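Before the break, one more example. Copy the sequence into your notebook; we will annotate it together after we see the structure.
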Amino acid sequence: MSTHGALDSHLVSFFLFSKSHSMSSLESDVASLFTSLRFLTQENSYRETLDRVLDMQQQLAELTAARKADSREIHQAEVKTQRLEKEVEIQKERITSLSTSLQGSQSELAAVRAQLDNEKGESQEAFKTVTAELEAKTKKLEQLQRYTSELRPASSSRVAPAFTKLFHQAFSLARKYVGKEVENIADNPLWGTFGGHPAVDDNKIPLPLNNSKAAQQMRTAAFIVILSTALMDCVFHPSYALYEEESSEFLVRIASKNSALEAHLRSVLLKAQPETQRKTEGERRARLAAAVVMEHLEGMFGEQDEKRLGSELEVLCNRASSVWQEVQTLDRMFTAVLTVDGIPNPRDWKILDFGEKPQQEASSKDQSDSNSSTRGDKTKGPAGPDSVVERVIWPSLVMAGLTDEMAVAGFALSDRQVSAARAEKNKSPHRDTRFKQRNSFSASQAGGSRFGGPLRFGNGRT
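Here is what the structure looks like once it is written out:
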């Protein structure tokens, strides 16, 4: 209860009491009332003071708790501050170290820049010198290119089709005129000698005077080998201003050691001679080759057949000349190889397949070979141990270099093919009939002075 409420209660009690008592007692009661009032007033003041003290204590406790919390935060902040100060010191040390390194690097960079500036000046001078040399060499190269012919990349696939086609044309021509039945052949001994050609003479390719299949095959082979030797001597030679045999062999030796050098020399020689002149020379050589062949076939045909054969033969030789001129424009040197005497490497030759079996008896192996071949297929593949090369009739084409690479295999007769015809000739009553070799073509007529001597029969290289 508040002080005012207590006071009002005492006053009410005093007035109620005064109605029932006397005045003296009233004074005593008044004094007692004031004493009570004074005591009550002091008690209420004490309580108010106590309440205020309690409030202040609570506030103090709250402040103390808040202060403790603030103290912990302050302590944590101080610890964190100390840690950060240490990290700052470490970073300062690193910055100092990096600054020192940077200063050193800047000094080195300055030295390098100075060196580069010096080298740049020297390089610019060297570059000017090299540029001047390059320009001079470029002009010289352009000048050299004006004096050289551009050679095409060489490959067997580029050469083989044309060279093989040339052989098939020669084979067809031979079959057309000599590899057939000849009327009254026994009355013309020339069919047994083919003009005494060295590749046919001395029974190298036996020529029975009859119309058996073996005889027809050997006449076909004889025609082809005579044509081959004429092409080797007249056509398959360099047509780029070097006509002497010694010069040709010189280029072959260079090609065997340094094919690039030979190609360069050939490109210069090709450029030195006009293409029209090479073409004219090629046509002259083709006519000469055809004339050489016809010289050995003289008297074997009637006038009309001989004229037609001569014309077709000249066309064939011109094709051979064109093919050979194309071969000479490749960046590798090709050589034609024809071995008439001796036994060559069997891997370099294919056995000629006439597409028909001879009439005379044949071994079981011959029959197997004949049955396995097809008419019109002129090759049997490389000669093997069962097909020994007896006589080469068409040249092989070789890509010259450190190791000669076979580009196109030539053609040959097998020992069985030759022996079958030889057996027929030995049984013939005309076997002793022999005509001497015709030599009406002198060395000068055959271009001997330009090819380094008379016509060659044997090994040959371009």
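The chain has eleven helices and seven strands. Confidence is low (pLDDT under 50) at residues 340-344, 357-379, 381-386, 431-462. Try to locate both features in your own notes.
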